[in-house]
Write a structure and sequence with these properties.
Layout (H helix, E strand, L loop, with lengths): L1 H10 L23 H4 L2 H10 L15 H14 L3
Helix pairs in contact: 1-4, 3-4
Keywords: Heme, Iron, Metal-binding
Organism: Aquibium pacificus
Protein name: Cytochrome c
């Protein structure tokens, strides 16, 4: 989980809220804890494999290795409400 958290803090936190209570700094960047309301987490895994290039209009393209994708999804799963 620590590896996934470090990845999202490095690559995503400048726009997205990546914790349980923080707010996104970009108005069109949803908090990671709410992404499962829009997309099943397994669908996000597929998007990461293909290279995330959609989202908010100025979101940079993000590509990750399978190991990184697994770590990110595992971390995101810890953010979901029970």
């Amino acid at each position: 989980m620590a590896y996934g958290k470090a990845l999202v803090e490095t690559n995503c936190a400048r726009c997205h809220a990546v914790g349980t209570t923080d707010e996104s700094t970009h108005p069109e960047a949803p908090p990671f804890r709410t992404l499962s309301e829009r997309y099943p987490l397994d669908a996000l895994e597929e998007a990461f494999v293909e290279g995330v290039s959609t989202g908010h209009p100025d979101m940079p393209e993000f590509q990750a290795s399978p190991e990184q994708i697994g770590a990110i999804i595992d971390y995101m799963d810890t953010l979901q409400p029970e």
